[in-house]
Amino acid sequence: MKKNYITTPIYYVNDKLHIGHAYTTILADVLNRFHNLIGHKSFMLTGSDEHGQKVQEAAEKRGVSPVEHVDEYVLNFTKLWEKLNINYDDFIRTTDSRHTSKVKEMLTQLWEKEEIYLDEYEGLYSVSEERFVTEKEIDEGDFKNIIKLKEKNYFFKMSKYQDKLIEHINQNPKFICPESRKNEILGFLSKPLNDLCISRPKSRLNWGIELPFDSNYVTYVWFDALMNYITAIGWDSNEKKFNSYWPANYHLVGKDIITTHAVYWPTMLMAAKLPLPKTILAHGWWLFDDSKMSKTDGNTVDPLELIDLYGEDSLRYYLMRDMALGQDANYSLDKFIKRYNSDLANDFGNLVNRITIMVKKHFNDVVPEPGDYTEDDLNVIAIAKSTIDSTLRNFEHLKIHDAIEDILKLLRSLNKYLEINEPWKILKKEPNNVKATNSIYVSINALYIGTQLLHPIMPRKTTEISNVLGIEKIQHLNRNFDILKPGTKIGKSNSPFPRIQ
Ligand code: MSP
Fold first, then answer.
1. For a substitution probing ligand 1, which of 17, 18, 21 has the most ligand atoms within 8 Å of its CB?
2. Residues of the chain with pLDDT under 70
């Protein structure tokens, strides 16, 4: 059976990861958890990009070997993903032998099929990007450190696949999302496509995968890196596994690496006669004061600091809620705290406290038996049910921020329903009042629905809350309304989201 397969970019091992990188990984984790929640078998891959000039230079600077350097640095990634509660299924390193051996195999196959040739090339080379660039790219992009370079190199016949790729993009509207990125790539492809230089002479770069047909060269870091998506799942080694995952459902990437994913990668796959991924999803950037958060600009925000102060679920929530997929978003601590206090402390946290306290006080810690529903009750039940539908729809269209907003609307409407019905006042005077009992029964069950739906976004907090509500684990989405049956024992809530002052 075909499994749902989601990938993140593999991050440069040298980099100190900021919330921009964390965003993609959290997004992949949220989608992966969501698919598992609705009963799909889903698999998430992340990893590290460990070859290339910058890594070689960083290791030299520290006076260690590149292997020692990457072995040490990769631990920063796994530690961060653990702290962010990322439940990845596999972590691939481009220095793994399962990867390097298969990159060589792919190079051999393409060489034998004459998809690769040797040529002398003179052009403009971006040292920071580690690739040849065109004049136009330099005009439009933000390249530093451009030099003129003439050398013999190996080239992949990328241009040969230009028409086929255009046709594929036009015939598969979901291949590149959002639409604006698809148009950007079609614009790029409306001009003649060059062949892709896929080698670097060892005189310039040692730290890479040696070309199997010429030991004087290593392979270009992007050719190596892109292959991770198939080497990790057993391409050319475990056919059964490979066929049950490939083609990937989602390659999640930032908009700056859309060309490598939507042009280089599909043409490589075409040459290898492999199917193309179903969707390449390019998200926008996290900005700080309107400019891209990046190491070179020194304006990055460390996710570890935010996790230590406010917990990983608050960060996961904020990043998912405040970025509309595809668009840029501005980060500020002030916005983070406002979002936390209004949505999590006020709307969600208060609701949990309110309901559990009432169950404790008036019903001895046990979910009460409802009577005949009023129109008000039925209205709330209808909102809860339609929130399940809208969440599924929004996730399918990758509108995570809209999904969250709808779930929060449900929680807000529960707070309002309780404020209007005031069961706390009525039960004090009349302990068996049906209307008041109903409002507790209905609101606790609707709260559980909201908690289930927020589970992929905030796995730890929602598990804690569901434990308080008497359910041990949120495993599969239960679409029934009355999940917390009368008689269910409720625990004590310890204010899941205390207000940040
Ligand atoms: N190693 C390559 C990817 C190879 S995938 C086969 C790479 N690594 S990276 O570490 O520089 O970037 C990884 C991802 O982080 C990219 O998708 C990039 O868009 C994303 N981000 C880096 N800065 C970002 C923001 N400020 N905001 C959102 N995402 C950003 O490129």
1. 21
2. none
How much distance in Å is there from the Cα of 291 to the middle of ligand 1? 15
Residue 15: its pLDDT value, please?
Answer: 84
The answer as to whether 137 is a domain residue is no
CA of 21 to the centre of ligand 1 (A): 6
Residue among 334, 467, 449 at smallest CA distance from 388 = 449
CATH code of the domain in which 456 resides: 1.10.730.10
Q: Which two tokens stand for residue 236?
A: 């050319």
* H or E element in which residue 317 lies: helix 312-322
Q: Is residue 429 part of a domain?
A: yes
Other C-beta atoms closer than 10 Å to the C-beta of 418 total 22
Q: Is 223 in the pocket of ligand 1 (CB under 6 A)?
A: no
The 8 Å CB, 24+ separation contacts for 479-485 are: 479/385, 479/388, 481/381, 481/384, 481/385, 481/445, 481/446, 481/449, 482/441, 482/445, 483/445, 483/448, 483/449, 484/367, 484/444, 484/445, 484/448, 485/367
Q: Which domain holds residue 363?
A: 333-468
Per the structure, the count of domains in the chain is: 1
Tell me if 457 is assigned to some domain: yes
pLDDT of residue 298: 87
